[in-house]
Amino acid sequence: MPRLRQAGREANNPYANQIFDLLFGDKDPVLNPGTPTGTPGNWWTVFNIVPDAFKHTTEGFRFYRSDKRLLDPKLRELGQTRAGYVVGSQFVFSQHCKAARDVGLQEEQITAIPHWAAASCFSDVERAVLAYTDALVLERGRVADGIFEALKANLSDEEILELTYVTCTYMMHAIMSRALRLEYDDVDERVVEIAPGGGLNSDVMNMVDK
């Protein structure tokens, strides 16, 4: 279950209810969860506990899908999908693998996003976008001049700003999804101590460590 409470149609948020109609039909998303794509749908219901946050973030989806955008949707989805993978969000990564497929990325490319640096299926500009995404997410914006030069050789300033904004937005979504245990990120921490099951006991291990 998510770590925060959920708000469905009983919250009387007309804007959210319109979105719920699109995603859930006439169901109440809290009492009867599940979207046609197979997700639980609790990302939407948790955000709905703060109605203006719900509106703000869904308007962000409209921003990146607007026909005003100059950035190639394939490059946008490379950034979003890689950001989800690097943060470790099963939800963002999985959803944007599907979105990447919808905008025309090849199956070989989608499969290679986790190991893009060792893959040969990406163009120069695609590799620059993936390297830039890693610099944004893994290095918190510390971007080497060589990476930025590769971007500038292929993209306009406006396209780079759109890429930066959308990729960082989805880094945030991925982090929030994990922190609040939303959707496919509702998983237990796997890095825990494993109880000894025979073999060396703690006293022996202490002697070895010394």
Describe the overall structure.
This protein folds into 2 domains: 9-64, no CATH class; 71-185, AhpD-like. Helix content is 57%, strand content 0%. The protein contains 10 helices and no strands. Helix 4 runs parallel beside helix 9. It is globular and about 50 Å long.
The portion of residues forming beta strands comes to under 5%
Helix content: 55-70%
CATH topology of the largest domain: AhpD-like
> What's the architecture of the largest domain, going by CATH?
Up-down Bundle
Q: Give the averaged pLDDT, no decimals.
A: 94
The number of distinct β-strands equals: 0
Residue runs with pLDDT of under 50 for 5 or more positions: none
Cα gyration radius (Å) = 21 Å
Q: Based on CA inertia axes, which overall geometry fits?
A: globular
- Write down the CATH class of the largest domain: Mainly Alpha
Tally of helical segments: 10
**How far is the N terminus from the C terminus?**
43 Å
Main beta-sheet strand count, sense and barrel state = none
Helix-strand sequence: HHHHHHHHHH
